[in-house]
Amino acid sequence: MAKVIEGLYYSESHEYVRVEGNIGYIGITDYAQEQLGNVVYVDMPEEGDEVTATEDFGAVESVKAASDLISPVSGTVLEVNEALEEQPELINQDAFANWIIKVELSDPSELENLMDAATYDAQCK
């Protein structure tokens, strides 16, 4: 069964945000990687790009399907997880440890639109 971690924010499109101060680490949830199967490619934005809540910022491709990545929050991309360029399967090994992008939040109040762990877990069942 997919794991859900307390203290993160979750979107209906199965992305999570881990917030540290004004920084958000965005990735896909364990549930999402289970549904996708073996991840073979991650399409990520560039550092300095702007992401907007509820809009695409890239895609994850698996042997079964390709899925758009929808940003749960708005902000500026500070860093992309370069390890995923060489080893996209890291998402399958631990989706929560292997975030996709790190952003500076431009509007922290957007977090109020996201789900907590219990609500997200219930949605996945």
Model description:
Helix content is 18%, strand content 35%. The chain has a six-stranded antiparallel sheet with strand order 1-2-3-9-8-5. The model has no long low-confidence stretch (mean pLDDT 97). A hairpin with a 2-residue loop joins strand 2 (15-20) and strand 3. By secondary structure, the protein is α+β, with helices and mostly antiparallel strands. The protein is built from four helices and nine strands; from the N terminus they run βββαβββββααβα.
Provide the fold topology:
Elements: E1 9-10, E2 15-20, E3 23-28, H1 30-36, E4 39-43, E5 50-51, E6 56-62, E7 66-70, E8 75-80, H2 83-86, H3 90-93, E9 101-105, H4 117-124
Antiparallel strand pairs: 1-2, 2-3, 3-9, 4-6, 5-8, 6-7, 8-9
The N- and C-terminal alpha carbons lie at a distance of: 10 Å
- What is the gyration radius calculated from CA atoms? 13 Å
* Helical run tally: 4
Mean pLDDT: 97
Global shape: globular
- The largest beta-sheet arranges its strands as 1-2-3-9-8-5
Succession of helices and strands: EEEHEEEEEHHEH
Which percent range describes the beta-strand content? Answer: 35-45%
Residue share in helix? 10-25%
Counted beta strands: 9
Spans with pLDDT under 50 lasting ≥5 residues?
none
Major sheet details: 6 strands, antiparallel
Structural class: alpha+beta
